[in-house]
Amino acid sequence: MTDADNNQSIPNMPQEKRGRSLEIWYKILFSLLLLTPAALLLLAFAVAGSLFIYIIFAILFGLLCIAVLCLALKKKNQIQSEGGAVRKDEFAIPGLITPAVCFISLAAVFAGTFLMETGIYSLGSDWRIGQVGRSVTLYSNNHNGRFPDADKWCDQLIESQGEGSLMYQKENANCPFALNENALTLGKDAPDDMVLIFPAKEGWNSSGGLELFQADSGSYFVKVFLAGGKTETIRPKDAENLRWSIDDKMNIPEPPAYASTSIGALICLSAAGVFLRKRSVYLRRRAGLAAFITVLSAGAGAGFAALAEMIFYSQHVRNYGIGWAAGGAAGIAAGAVFTGLLCKWKSESPEGFKLMGWATAAGALTGLLASSAAHLILMAAYDFFLPHPIMFASPFGTYSGLLLGGLSIVFLQELPRKNTQSIEQQ
User: Fold this and answer.
1) Parallel, antiparallel, or unpaired for β 207-208 and 175-180?
2) What single-letter DSSP state applies at residue 96?
3) Sign of torsion, CA 231 232 236 237?
4) Helix 388-412 to helix 12-46 angle, to the nearest 10 degrees?
5) Given strand 195-203, what is the order of strands in its sheet?
6) CA distances from 171 to 44, 168, 203, 311, 372 (A)
7) Which of 40, 123, 232, 298 is deepest in the core (most CB within 10 A)?
């Protein structure tokens, strides 16, 4: 048998087996990374603030990453035993780097949990202040304009309206709010812009003034309930500018527009990156490509930060929501752009499923970068330099980037195949 015969007979079958194995591998990998964290995150949303949930999440997700690594090793050995070859990047990207990025981001959440104070607010505490405020207002309407007593207002509200209307965690005798004694003294004559209910250290029947004010260490903003029946969203450091007594005036300064300036600068950098991509071969190198994708992801994060700067001041949204949105947008951009650039610059366009490993890794990494960029800008804009928000939000950005980066391949699968067919016809 000649060398020519060998060259004709060997590649076909192993290549076919290798393709089938890799396709199954990527589908199983992506299903694991998609379904397991999603189910756990839904559970975490239901009882957010529970350290037990974070511990369970960390253990299960760690086991998931180990399972993905074992699966990658098994498939690599299987492909090689069938006579196929697996390049280092084909194995390392989906089998090692993607789970590692997820695991590191999860470790940030776990570390942030221990850094936060033990009296963390439960999910929805900012919404609860409006509910409690309406309960106090209703109590006043039913008692000739008289507010509840300062030293037993929690008990009086529950006695008047029932425990079902409030969420005080009565079994622990904890309530993360306090009443303003000055507003209680004035009763129905209290000015509409005077603070009535504000966040405080958890207790029961707490009342006082500014000295009791305590914001969640993981929030850029908090809400207070005013005597006029409205809620006001403020930065924690601006609490002293609220109207706590009849002689005070509400004077909340507007925040500096750091995010607006930053997004403008990053848009210019992104435009410069596009110009370089069209006019220069620099970005055809790996380092240039990595820099270009980094700029895109940072731009996406900064864009969401600028949006957050505009909407957060009037409406509070949980901090990790911005991390999820910024990371998801960057994940779509990374998966699509990264895949598109590979298909354009490669002499042969690989099949779509073989790019899933690259796209999930790129999506996870850029999701992490975008989420971090968004929160760093917000932290600078609002003079909030504690690390908790970015620790909690960046993993959401990482996971959404990984998920949407991989999903982008589903919509781009036909493009590589058409390119491959055209190359074969040529």
Assistant:
1) parallel
2) I
3) negative
4) 140
5) 207-208, 175-180, 195-203, 222-226, 231-234
6) 22, 8, 12, 36, 38
7) 298
Lowest mean pLDDT of 138-142, 249-253, 292-296, 375-379, name the range: 292-296
How far apart (Å, rounded) are the C-alpha atoms in residues 120 and 217? 8
Residue 105 to residues 58, 230, 283, 291, Cα–Cα distance (Å): 10, 38, 28, 21
Q: Which two tokens stand for residue 311?
A: 């909407």
Answer yes or no: are the C-beta atoms of 336 and 404 closer than 8 Å.
Answer: no
Res. 137: pLDDT tops 60: yes
pLDDT, tens digit, for every residue of 193-251? 899 999 887 678 888 988 889 876 556 678 899 988 888 878 788 888 899 998 888 88
Classify 27 as helix, strand or coil. helix
Classify burial at 64, counting beta carbons within 10 Å of its beta carbon; exposed 0-12, middle 13-18, buried 19 or more: buried
**Whole-prediction pTM:** 0.55
Q: What is the DSSP pairing of strand 175-180 with strand 195-203?
A: antiparallel
Question: From residue 165, how far is each of 139, 154, 175, 198 by CA, in Å?
Answer: 12, 12, 14, 19
Provide the residue ranges of all domains of the chain, joining segments of one domain with +: 1-116, 125-241, 254-426
